[in-house]
Structure formats: structure tokens, C-alpha cells
User: Fold this.
Amino acid sequence: MLLPLAHGKTQFIEVVRITDPVRTHTAAGLVGNAVARWDGKQAQQTMTLIADLPVGEPYRCFTPG
Assistant:
């Protein structure tokens, strides 16, 4: 999966469950609740897993905003 080149410097990830999926998916229009917070090594490992997702059909189920 394509990520910004700086993804290896990620220090913090906040996972948000979108509670109103009908709204427009722009930063201003999203409504949700934080369900997890990962920092340091856990955030970096997560970004590595995401970056390793295959290109093409299989990765469609993961669409970060």
C-alpha cells in the first residue's frame, strides 16, 4: 500500500470508529469515537504492516482517510 515517505517516522496513531458513515468523508465531515491510541514502537509496527499490504484487489478493504 502506498503511504507517505515519512510513514517510518510515525510516533502516534489514533484509531477512530466512524459513527456516521453517511456523511461526506472529508476531515471536517467525519464524526467518530477514538477506540485506540498507539504510540512509539506499536505505531511504527502498525505502519509497517499497512505498508506491506499488497497492491491491488486484496487491499481494498483497508482505506485510510
Summary: The longest strand covers residues 32-39.
